[in-house]
Amino acid sequence: MREWLPPGHLVWLIADIVEALDTSAFHGRRKRRATADSHAGRRGYDPDMMLVLLFYAYCVGERSSRMIERRCHTDVAFRVACAQHAPDHTVIARFRKDQETHFTSLFTQVLQLCAAAGMVKVGTIAVDGTKIEANASIDANKTEARLREMASEIVADAAAVDEQEDLDDPDDQTPPRLQSRATRQAAIAEALASIEKDRRERPSSATKMTIRRVERAEAKERRLTEESTAIYTAQQQVLAQGRRPAGRRAVHPDRNVNVLKARQNLINARAALEHRNASEPVRKRNLTDPQSRLMKTRFGFRQAYNAQLAVSEDHLILAAYVTDRGIDIGEYIPTVAAVEQTLSELADAGHDRVIGTVLADAGYFSRENLAAAGPTRLIAP
Predict the structure, then answer these.
(1) Looking at the domain assignment, is residue 42 inside a domain?
(2) Mean pLDDT across the chain
(3) Which residues touch 228 (CB under 8 Å, ≥6 apart)?
(4) Which PANTHER family match (predicted)?
(5) Distance (Å, whole) CA 233 – CA 237
(6) Domain total for the chain?
(7) C-beta neighbour count of 377 within 10 angstroms
(8) Which long-range contacts (CB under 8 A, 24 or more apart) does 288-292 make?
(9) Could you read off the pLDDT of 292-336 as tens digits, one per residue?
(10) 108 and 174 belong to one structural domain
(11) What letter does residue 8 receive in the DSSP assignment?
């Protein structure tokens, strides 16, 4: 096969890189295979070969497992990458899924090889985000109220079906129609749980201010009640001994003017929080992909994810992750932290790198991002 492609072809470079990596973690889960084109019980495909195939496919922009399988039969470079084994698309997809957690270590190892070759220049790094469309329809988005309504309808409908089918066939307690209904109910439950988590962890700025108001009111009411109770109790103990207490006569905390005022302020603060929660923007979730969000892109609104990237001067990816936040403003600090973690791992391997300046567009412009600890930054206003 060395004669099939020129020595400088990309596939040979990728094969050499994989050979230099520590891929022992991938070999630990090597399974027997049984596909349409292989015999059950035969040893699974070599993980190193699968890595070469996937890396080469991704480098040339091929993501589909089915297309990768097809090109293993028709494309010379793909045939070289897979050593003419042409794995089934199900094998490719399963390998990618089963070994997902091990790919992170390869990311760092590749950067170490690049650093050893004099690359990974971080005098200036760039941070940016891009929307990646999810495999879900916008029409599958439902409001929280609609999700709860659908959940109630499913429960009521299931109960009615159960009752009727029990009468028709007492021995059949698991009607087939309920299986799909149960699956749908699970999707609704997951979407509602996601909304509840989002409400707790990501309140609006106005809601955050109201929450802090409630917390301050609670702390003040608790402090005044404790102080008033302590003074009143001490005076009652002195009176019980037949002596006259010093100072002004204390009243019970339930009649103390300052305590009553603090309790009323707490009631008002909690009422304001209830009103704020009721006026919060309507939260939606997608039943097909609850982790995706409706995001604004240059082509209009799309069901998508927000992918964040940080790259070096020589165009090497230093950090990459996906978030469900529709805007970039809250992703500057996490992205820079991810880059610093990557550089820390490089330093442990003997390749010290220090970030000079971070470049980011106006999507990251905020006082918090400008004032945050870390390297020098230029963020477009």
Answers:
(1) yes
(2) 83
(3) 250, 253, 256, 258, 259
(4) TRANSPOSASE, TRANSPOSASE DDE DOMAIN-CONTAINING PROTEIN
(5) 6
(6) 4
(7) 18
(8) 288/135, 288/136, 288/137, 288/140, 289/134, 289/135, 289/136, 289/140, 290/187, 290/190, 290/191, 290/194, 291/194, 291/324, 292/134, 292/136, 292/324
(9) 888 888 888 889 999 999 999 999 999 999 998 889 999 999 999
(10) no
(11) T
Beta pairing partners, 143: 284
- Over residues 46-69, the pLDDT tens digits come to 899 999 999 999 889 888 899 999
> Confidence class of residue 172 from pLDDT cuts 50, 70 and 90?
very low
Q: Is residue 311 one of the residues assigned to a domain?
A: yes
SS3 (DSSP) at 306: strand
Stated pTM of the model: 0.62
- Cα separation, 154 vs 187, whole angstroms: 12
- Tell me: do 92 and 6 sit in the same domain: yes
Alpha helices in the chain (DSSP H): 10-20, 24-27, 47-59, 65-74, 76-81, 89-98, 103-116, 144-168, 176-201, 205-240, 257-278, 332-348, 367-371
Residues 6 and 77 in one domain: yes
| CB 363 within 8 Å of CB 328 | yes
